[in-house]
Amino acid sequence: xxxxxxxxxxxxxxxxxxxxxxxxxxxxxxxxxxxxxxxxxxxxxxxxxxxxxxxxxxxxxxxxxxxxxxxxxxxxxxxxxxxxxxxxxxxxxxxxxxxxxxxxxxxxxxxxxxxxxxxxxxxxxxxxxxxxxxxxxxxxxxxxxxxxxxxxxxxxxxxxxxxxxxxxxxxxxxxxxxxxxxxxxxxxxxxxxxxxxxxxxxxxxxxxxxxxxxxxxxxxxxxxxxxxxxxxxxxxxxxxxxxxxxxxxxxxxxxxxxxxxxxxxxxxxxxxxxxxxxxxxxxxxxxxxxxxxxxxxxxxxxxxxxxxxxxxxxxxxxxxxxxxxxxxxxxxxxxxxxxxxxxxxxxxxxxxxxxxxxxxxxxxxxxxxxxxxxxxxxxxxxxxxxxxxxxxxxxxxxxxxxxxxxxxxxxxxxxxxxxxxxxxxxxxxxxxxxxxxxxxxxxxxxxxxxxxxxxxxxxxxxxxxxxxxxxxxxxxxxxxxxxxxxxxxxxxxxxxxxxxxxxxxxxxxxxxxxxxxxxxxxxxxxxxxxxxxxxxxxxxxxxxxxxxxxxxxxxxxxxxxxxxxxxxxxxxxxxxxxxxxxxxxxxxxxxxxxxxxxxxxxxxxxxxxxxxxxxxxxxxxxxxxxxxxxxxxxxxxxxxxxxxxxxxxxxxxxxxxxxxxxxxxxxxxxxxxxxxxxxxxx
Length: 682
Prior knowledge:
682 residues; mainly beta
C-alpha cells in the first residue's frame, strides 16, 4: 500500500507543480519574458547538450562548490546531491552510490575515461581520483550515461579538469593552496600552473599541477562499532571502544603535466599523471573470550601512472565533429597487515581507445556514433587474494540521436557491448544491448516536462563470476558463480523542470525493474576461519524513487547576494520475492545556502538522513543523523585573487553512519573537524 501512496504523492506533486507553474505564468507572463534556458553545457553529453534540455537527470558541481571539499573523497562531495550517497570506508574510500546502486553499476571517470583502478572489485578499494585538480563534477543519471556503459538505471560520475578540457584562451596562472585541520592534523599542499604560448597559427597551453596530502586517523563522536552491532553481539557498552578510528590515516602524492595545442578547428590534448596513496582501514573486532582487542587493520599501498590524449576536429558538411581519445594505465596496489603483504593487484597492458563522430544528416537532427575498445590484464598474487588473474577485452558501439522541432525534443540512444574474460580455468564471451527513448516538451513559460523509457542489459563482472576466497577488509568469504546470466533492466522516468524568476525547481520519479539482478547473500555458514560465507546470487529486483530540488539564484538581501537550494530524495530497492535489498540509502534532505557580502562569503550545507529500518535480513538498522557543515571565507584586498577560509565539518559532532556503506556498523564517520585553508592565485 505504501508503494502506491508514494507513487501517487510523487505524481501528485509533479501535477500540482505543473498546474501551479502554468497558472502562475498566465497571471504573470511578463515575469517570464527575461527568463532564458540554462545554457550550461553538459560536457559529458555526447551532443554537448545544454543542462536544461538534457533528456536525463544531471547534477553539475562547479569549482566553487568543489573547493569546500577539496581534500575529501569523491563520495563525500557527491553525497550532498539528490539521488547520490556515499559508501564510505574511512577517509580514503568514498564510493558513489547512485539511486541505490554502486560498485560495478556506477562508473567514476576522469575526463570521460575510466579512472584506471580496481575500485569496482571491492568496497575497500579507493577511487584514484582527486578533487584538487577537478574543475567540474558531472553526475549523470539516465540515457546520457549510455555513452560510457549500460548505466541508464544508475549513473556515472565524471570529474573534469583543466588538463584535458580548456577553452584555449590566453592564460598565465599560478594557484597555490594550503590546508590544515585540527582533528586529523591534516597538511595539504597543492599547486596548479598554466602558461599559454603561440607557435605561428597554433595556440598552446602548458599546465603542471601537484599535490601532497597527509592525514592522521580521525576522531569519532561515539563508539567505534555501532550500538546496534554491540547489542546484537551482546557486548558491554561501557567497555566499547571510543574516541578514535584507528588506522584510518591517509597519505597521498600526485602530479600531472599536460599540453594542449589548438587552432581554429582542431585541438590536441595530452597529459601524463602519476600518484601514490597509502591508507589504512579500520581493524575488525574478534571479540574472543581470552582477548577482546581490535586488530590493527589492513594497509593498502597503491601507485598509478596514466597517459591520456584526445584529438578533436570540427568540420563542415556531413561530419560535424570528430574525436579520437586514448588512455594507457599502469596500476598496482598491495594489501597487508602488520607489515606483511597478503595480496597484490596489478593492472598491466591496460589500454582504452574511443572514436566518436557527430553527424549532420537531416535538419534539426543531431547524431553521434562512437566506438570504444579497451583491454587490460588483472594480475593477482599473495595468499589472501580472492580473484584469479584475468584478461579482459571490451568493445562497444553506441549512438545518440536528438531531434528538436518547435517545442518538442525527441531522443533515441542505443549501445551494444561485447565482453570477454579469460582466466586459467574459465573463459567468458557475451554481448549486451541497451536502448533508450525519450521525449520532452518545452512549455511556453520556461519549463520542460519529459519522459524516458529504457531497456538495458548488464553483463556480470569478474567479481561476480570468479570470486573465491576471503575478502579480508569486508570480513567475509565471497563465492562467485560462473553460470550467472546477464541482467535485464526496464526503466521508466518522468521529470519536470521549471524556471522561475527567483530560480526554479526540478522533480523526477523513476521505476526500474531488473530481471536476474546479481547480489551478494549470506549462506548462514562460516568457513574454516570462522568467516561468514556469501554467495553471488540472482533474483528479480525493483527500484523506485524520486528526487526534488528547489533553488534560488542571486537573491539580493540588502547588500548581500544569496544562492540556496533544498533537495529531497528517496529510493527503495527490493528483491521481488525476498524483501529489501541491502545498503539502500534512506530518505535524505539537504539544504544549502551561500551568501556573499563585499569581500566576505559564508556557506552552509545541512544534510538530514532519515532512519533506515527497511533492511535486508542480515542487516542492522541505521539511526538518523543531521550533519551541518559551515564555511566562512575572506578575500583580503591585498591578496587580490586570494582567499582565506575556515571550514567546520559536522559542527555538532553528530554520529554519522551511512546505510549505503556495508561497513557502517564497524566505524562511524568523522566528528567535528575544523580546517584552515589559504588559496592564492597569481
